């Protein structure tokens, strides 16, 4: 689905990314891990068009692409769910899901109006599709639990019919129950929606619960990657802490 080759990015004298390669396969969940300032968010912001790489290439479904802004990323089918959910708490679920892209219809005096009935029906369909437990799409988002708010944020990107979803710390600050709800939702997306995902997370247990592969960044460089079923948390943690020195010691 996605191949990023030799991606480099600097902010002044700070080299945030140095010749980073990333591959995401179809219908795969890839964990992207590393300590603070490793370059995880910068790499994903390049993929979503928020930043432009100084060097490197991006391929999408086998073809070279140039992503210079978020609109171009969205047109390819790449969506991102941010850590703060980016929801409007004073608005209801349906309005949040269709925020900025409301379905319209021509009404009285040939003026265009928001088609609330269609918006509510489609929002309910998305929630049911994702198996989100909500009694109504008219509930205000601010009254929902953290797990359900995350589900609404994911529902919003699903409304764009994406091929790739990037989730930034999707279970941060969630309760144990809410975390499990979000992890179940990720597996639901993978198994029934044919969506590939990249999960940025500090919680290795979450990556091991749903991921297929995990890739480690450290100080802007790619340390390496592992197939989840062939490794364990301590192995990945050692990569995060020791970086290239750990990989070299394993080869020696």
TrEMBL record:
It comes from Vecturithrix granuli. Residues 2-244 form the ABC transporter domain. The keyword Nucleotide-binding applies. It holds the Pfam family ABC_tran. Gene3D superfamilies: P-loop containing nucleotide triphosphate hydrolases. The keyword ATP-binding applies. It comes from the Bacteria. Keywords: ATP-binding, Nucleotide-binding. SMART domains: AAA. This is Probable sugar ABC transporter, ATP-binding protein. One of its GO terms (molecular function) is ATP binding.
């Amino acid at each position: 689905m996605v191949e990023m080759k030799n991606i480099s990015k600097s902010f002044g004298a700070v080299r945030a990314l140095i010749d980073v390669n990333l591959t995401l396969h179809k219908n795969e969940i890839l964990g992207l891990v590393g300590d603070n300032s490793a370059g995880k968010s910068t790499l994903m912001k390049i993929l979503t068009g928020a930043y432009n790489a100084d060097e490197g290439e991006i391929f999408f479904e086998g073809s070279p692409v140039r992503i210079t802004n978020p609109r171009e990323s969205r047109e390819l089918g790449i969506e991102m769910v941010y850590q703060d959910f980016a929801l409007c708490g004073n608005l209801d679920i349906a309005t949040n899901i269709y925020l900025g892209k409301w379905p319209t219809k021509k009404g009285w005096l040939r003026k265009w109006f928001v088609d609330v009935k269609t918006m509510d029906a489609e929002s309910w369909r998305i929630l049911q599709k994702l198996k989100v437990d909500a009694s109504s799409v008219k509930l205000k988002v601010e009254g929902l639990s953290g797990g359900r708010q995350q589900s609404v944020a994911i529902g919003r990107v699903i409304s764009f019919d994406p091929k790739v979803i990037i989730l930034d710390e999707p279970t941060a600050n969630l309760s144990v129950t809410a975390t499990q709800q979000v992890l179940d939702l990720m597996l639901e997306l993978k198994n029934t929606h044919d969506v590939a995902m990249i999960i940025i997370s500090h919680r290795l247990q979450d990556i091991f619960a749903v991921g297929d592969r995990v890739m480690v960044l450290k100080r802007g460089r790619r340390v390496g990657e592992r197939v989840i079923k062939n490794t364990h948390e301590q192995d990945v943690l050692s990569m995060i802490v020791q970086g290239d020195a750990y990989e070299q010691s394993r080869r020696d």
